Amino acid sequence: MTRRTVLLTTLASPLLARVPKSRFTVDLFHESDAGVHTYRIPALVETRKGKLLAVCDARHDGARDMPARISLVLRTSHDNGRTWTPSVTLRSVPEGGVGDASLLLDHRTGRVWCFHSYGPPGIGFFTAQPGARTGPTTFQFQAIFTDDDGATWSQPVDLTPQVKDPAWQALFATSGTHIQTSAGRYLVPMVVRDADGIVSSRNAYSDDAGKTWRIGPAIGPGTDESKCVELRGGVILQNMRNGHTRAIALSHDGGVTFSAVTHDDALVDPTCNAAIIRYQHKGHDLLLFSNAASSTKRENLTLKSSADEGKTWTTLESLHLGPSAYSTLLALRDGSIAVLYECGETSPYSRIVFTRLPLALHK
Fold this sequence. Notes:
- It is built from one helix and 27 strands.
- By secondary structure, it is mostly beta strands.
């Protein structure tokens, strides 16, 4: 893949003022900033050098998904989220849209991947057509990467032909933050609408640092956006959007095939994207989970923890009681927790907020 330098188009104000060293919250993207109607779909990663990269959709004309005019925008922080650079355009296209970013750090090389969807003009997840692996009627799974902490990015590469069955109607990568397993495998949770129009979760995976990709079978019909977390012994737990509680399944082959789908009644959900991570720091070994913890509507963005591999959950904190939706989580190198999430007072999509929680909140 050839390299290029991204033209960084400034969209926002100068650096934010410094905030306290303990818990703090910063509004990173706010509706109508820089003339953008709505910012949605948060993605977050910490580079191997400790820099934070926050990416989201800039939905220029309205809040709707593709097909719509959408670009990807980026802000970065060198101090664990206390201050952030102005917003810049990470990727835009002259026609159609790009969105639904997800980020993955290769711990061995330091490379950061940004997976995302590209919709040619008029093409979205529900308007794409079967019959091709890629092309102008296909909702595409694409990627760019950076080897210098987000200063420059590669040319986009279309991964769709490697993972899409031509009979399928559409597919896309779940937004947020994805994992590299302890064995080195990249796992990117996908949503597929198959030849019969059935939507399901499954994983795209790469065992050669992103050079080649394969995709596993459907985990369960009716499952949707999902996240992976690696448990002890290399078992992969898939946590999936599927009705009013989270669906879960386990894999013993690195996230390719899974056990039967069950539901975790402790994780109520309004059918929304969520986040789950493994937290290991100074003797702690926990799972952390964030979502809009309501069975009726997108509200009450809540952080939970589990000390028994997801068998039981404890509520740590309600981060935003009001309207809230998508979120993603990071365990930062200093032991604190970072959460990037959508919220507002009258709409869950008014702004995207970064919150950092100190270690004391989850001891």
